[in-house]
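User: Please run a holo structure prediction.
Assistant: Happy to. Please share the sequence and the ligand.
User: Here you go; the ligand is zinc ion.
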Amino acid sequence: MKAWMEYDRRNELRNAYLRQARESVRGIEDREMEDILNLLHRLPLAFPTQEGLFVYRDGKSLKNREAGISIVPVTLEDVRVSDFWKSIALQNRAAGNFLIRLSTLVILTNQSMLPATNAITLLHEGYHAKFFAENSHDGQSDEEYCREEVGAYSFINRIVEKMGGDVYRMILREQIIRMEMIASFNDEDIPNVIPIRSEYNDLLSLIYGFPRSEHEMTALQTNVWIHAVFTIFEEYIEDKEKASERKAMFLCSLYKERRIL
Ligand SMILES: [Zn+2]
């Protein structure tokens, strides 16, 4: 395929995702969200190559490192590019990823998910892109990574609460009460073992629409659960710093369990 056709095709994919995300969060006022969406519009577009990435900027192609942060809409056809891109294109954990090694935000366009779920993913990964742009680093310790995740989830929690309003707050409270009934939390001592999330709460469909897969249900309910756990830490631990540490520890152990770390 000719380079400009390739550019147009991927650019159209990127724009479609961003349009959809903007549509999903219409009416929500949030400075940080606006900054992130604007950043995603501005990022130079990239394509997967055998060596890594091919980044377009100002009509020129650049090697990844000189180009800074980029955005790459990945399609199923990219499984042919290399084993690396095959593993990215076929993953089904999320609809996107921020790859620190290539400093690029991947949009997985072959996932069939609700517009709202895609918007949440784009914003979450966009948070990482912005964080990377502001704190350029070559790598992070597990603790640093988990602290960044606390920032990403706190941001997403705020946005979905604005999206879902009272219905969302009711679902969240229900999740908190359920966990309080299973575990005994008190101010001095929150057990290390946090009750696992509940099954998908059907009321979430009132906010997002009906999920298109089991996997999507799990992802949406997991976000509620993480929000509930964060809220419990905030409500039981008075010291903000300590509450934030607990959130990071919680995400770290979750990620280790899922072999993300
Ligand atoms: Zn993340």
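The first helix runs from residue 3 to 24.
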